[in-house]
Every structure is written in C-alpha cells, then in structure tokens.
Amino acid sequence: MTSLIVSDLIQIVMTTLTVGSMYALIAVGVSLIYSATGVINFAQGEFVMLSGMTVASLYGSMGWPLTTAIAVALVVVLFYAALLTLLTSILAARISLIGVLIITIGASIATQGIAARIWDSDTHRFAPFSGEDPIRILDATISPQALWIVGVTAICIAGLIWFMRSTMAGKAMRACSLDQAAATMVGIPVKATVLLSFTLSGLLGAVGGILTTPLTTIDANSGMLLAIKGFTAAMLGGMGSIPGALFGALLIAFVETVTVTVGSSAFKELPTFTIIILVLLFLPRGLVGGRNEIGLQHEDLTRQ
Amino acid sequence: MLDLRDLSVSYGNISALKNVSLKVEAGEIVALIGSNGAGKSTLIKTCAGLVPPSAGEIFLNETNLLKQAPSRRAALGIAVVPENRRLFDDMSVRDNLQLGAYSQRAHRSKMASDMAEIFALFPRLEERQNQKAMTMSGGEQQMLAIGRALMSRPQIVLMDEPSIGLAPKVVSQIFDAIVQMRAKGLTVLLAEQNASASLKIADRAYVLELGRVTMSGTAKELKESDKVRKLYLGGGAA
Ligand SMILES: Nc1ncnc2c1ncn2[C@@H]1O[C@H](COP(=O)(O)OP(=O)(O)O)[C@@H](O)[C@H]1O
Ligand SMILES: [Mg+2]
Questions:
Q1: Is residue A301 part of a domain?
Q2: CATH code (residue A96)
Q3: pTM of the predicted model, to two decimals?
Q4: pLDDT for B27-44, tens place per residue?
C-alpha cells in the first residue's frame, strides 16, 4: 500500500519534471524575447515543431545519423528564428506591440500550414536516444528519454543563466532589456542583441523538440498549444525572469500531472487556461515578479 | 574636438534646436547653460544619435558623427552621462561599469585598471560594487553614471545635468571629480541649469534659450554679464 503511494509520488514527480522541462524551454524562450523586444512571441512553439519534425523525418524515416539530423534541425530553426526576428523588428517599428503579437500568432498558423504541406498532418516520432526499455523504481516506470529531457534541459537553463549573469554578451542583453537608449549609448548594438535573443530562444525550443518528440510525438500543429503553455508559465513566473519562467513551467506541469493522475486526461488542458486567466487578472507581475511594475507593457488601446 | 554646425532638431512641429553652432576644444570644460526646456538634452541626445537632426552637422575630430550608427559612437570616443542617469537599475554597480566598457571589450585587459581609476575617483562606488544600481542614493547613482561613461575611455564626455536633485555638498564633490578628470586629459561638455556651480569649473560656456545659442564666451565673461547674473545666477547687482 505505502509502496503504491510512493510509486505514485515518484511517477508524479518524474512526469512533472519531464513535462515541466518542455514547458520551461518554451517559457524561458518567450521570456528572453519579451525582455529584448517587449514582444510576446506566440510562434515559440514552432521552434519545437520544426526541430521535432525535421529529426523525425531525417533520422526517424530516412535513417540519417542522429547527430546529422540534429544539426540540420538546428540550422532550420536558426533560419526560422532569423526570419521571425526580421519580421518582428520590421513590424515593431511600424505597429503596436499588440499588433506584433498578433503577427506572431499569424506566423505560427502560417508555419503550421507550411509544415503540413512539407510533411503531412500525421503524428511523427523517432526512437528514443537510449532505447525504449523503461527504468523501474518500485512500481513507477520511467522512460530513459525522460532522464535525457530533464538532464539536458537543466544543463541548457543553467548555461543560459550563467551566460546572462557572467558574460559580456549576456549582460549586454540584460542591459538592452532594461534600457535600450542607455544600452545604445554605451555602444551595445540593440538589433544584434535582439537577433541573439531570438537565436537563443530558437535553440531552446529546438532542444525541446529534439528531446521530447520520442516521448510525446509531434505533428504540424503541435506548436500553438506548446506556445500557450510556455506563455502561461512565463506569465505565472513573471515575464522577463528566467528563474520565474522555470518555476512557472514546473508549477503548471505539476498541476497538469496531478489533474491527469487523480482526475482524467480529458481535463489536461484545464489547469493551464485557469491559471492564465487567474494570473492575468490577479498577478500580472507573476509570482517572481518580472521587470515591469505593471506586468506586461501596458498599451493604451483606446488612444490612437 | 566636438564641433556642432548649424544644428536644428525638431520633434514633429516643435522645434527644439535652431541653428545651434558650438565647439568644444580638447581639454576644455564647456558649460551649456539653459533653463528647463531650453534644448540641452536634445543637443546631447542628438550627439548620441538618439534623436535625428533636421539640419546641420556634428563632427568629432574629423569624423562626421551623423554618418555613424548610434551604437558606434561610444567606440569613436564620445560618452554620455544621460539625463536622469539611466543606469541599468537592476544590475550591480560593477556590471554597470563593465557595460560602460562594452565598446572597449576588445581591450579587456584594461578594464580592471580603468575600474580601479574610477574607484579612486569615487571611493563610494568601490564600497558598493556589488549593490544593485537602483538601491543607491542619488549622488552615488550620478557617480556611477559618470563612472560608466568613463569606462569607455572617451575623448569627450557629454553630461546632462549631473547636479540635478543633489545636495550642494554632493554637487561640489561631483564637480571636483570633473575637474580631476579634465586634469587627466578629458574633455567635457556640461549641460546645466545650475549656472553658478558649472561656471565655477568651466573654461567657456554657451547659453541656450528656447533652442538658440544666445550668448557664449569664457566662463569669466559670462559670470560677469548682467544678463547671466540676472537670469541664471539668481542675483541682481554684486
Ligand atoms: N520626445 C519629445 N517629444 C516632443 N517634444 C520634446 C521631446 N523632448 C523634448 N521636447 C521639447 O523640446 C524642447 C527642448 O527639450 P529638452 O531638450 O529636454 O530641454 P532641456 O534638456 O534643456 O530641459 C522642449 O520644448 C521640450 O518640450
Ligand atoms: Mg534636459
């Protein structure tokens, strides 16, 4: 009886960490781009989809070596990130931030359509890195891929935090997010910094797609829901804060896992949407508190 | 060193600078005196590339600054202590100083000694180097803004009202530091409403009124002029 409860707990913790890692990779990416530009990038999930689909077809179907397939996927995602940078920077100079946000939703939908053309609308996956045999702890079963997901995510996010706190390029990114004019005056090229933030966000999303596809499968339309999860996690943690995004992602994954475990998988998406509404209403700065006093940059939509 | 020729700037249909010509020679402290709204900040922002001029030219030595991207100008030797300081609030004093040296990041080895020099000028900054910029007092923040500007090894520093909001004692501390910096070869353009403090340390000065230069001369000449005394030094006869 006790071992059953312990097994359940282990299962819940592992699922939370695995799912939370995926959400964290997206949430941190959303947060990075928001810090650099003020734009909420709803095309963030497309990084995951593009990398997952690329590896699934090159490695899964065509039998290329895994490393080559991963390298191609990263190139595809970097190219896509550069395109998004170009699109959003051109538009941001001309239309409101809310307008740019809507454009990123449009970009996401367009990408889904193009992906469905290039590939198809079926779900895809490829073999896990360390085989399919689950690891058993008491009655809990853990997929070795889950360990890959949690481990690599931890390394990526720790590396990113180190980069932002300790390198000149990382500090320059933070400086840009705090005050673009002051950053320009000390010589920081703001546009290059924006490109860097999209690049890093893209890489995080790509890592997510490559790690999770063997476990969760992927299809051309997977990106949007993931972007919403990432956005919710980033908002919950406080937009602009990397530790906040990580924390928000784990919290959402935990609530989701518990909902599915004690309730039903039919309610899986309910917590996310409940949380986003509650956060937007009552906690616009998030739990950790992002950089903005009033939460998301406020725009007066009534004034034209 | 810095040469502004017939510079005009407008915001929409508000004209903020009208045909302003101004020169700062190497090693000088030049005061730019004007009351609120005279156009001091606009002049400095235009030099920094944050505001585009509608006419005129800006030369730094032989370089036409207006042809240089704003983020390139720090590397060319022009540093700004902006209005309201504009520190990177959420970052440490040390990080702010390091970012000041962003344009010099190719010469990393010099960063430590440059920072030591700034700590010698403003010992308070050394004591507080790990503190976040926004948690410091107004005077300390101003010292940090100046320190951040110096970290780019500039030829000229443009300062926008460094004395604003500070107690007289802190102002004289900061102005003493400006004099020390000049002694080491720095050139300074000092925009100020505080005419009495700035004319004390300046070599020459310009008076800006509603976007026009209405007077210029040596600091001594301006201090003795009736108009400056009446309008900016808060006094009648002396
Ligand atoms: N961003 C802006 N938009 C419109 N008008 C501005 C802006 N900034 C300054 N001005 C106007 O330009 C004039 C000069 O302002 P400014 O350069 O800030 O003067 P100072 O720094 O001497 O107080 C003022 O009339 C001010 O209202
Ligand atoms: Mg001003």
A1: no
A2: 1.10.3470
A3: 0.89
A4: 999 999 999 999 999 999
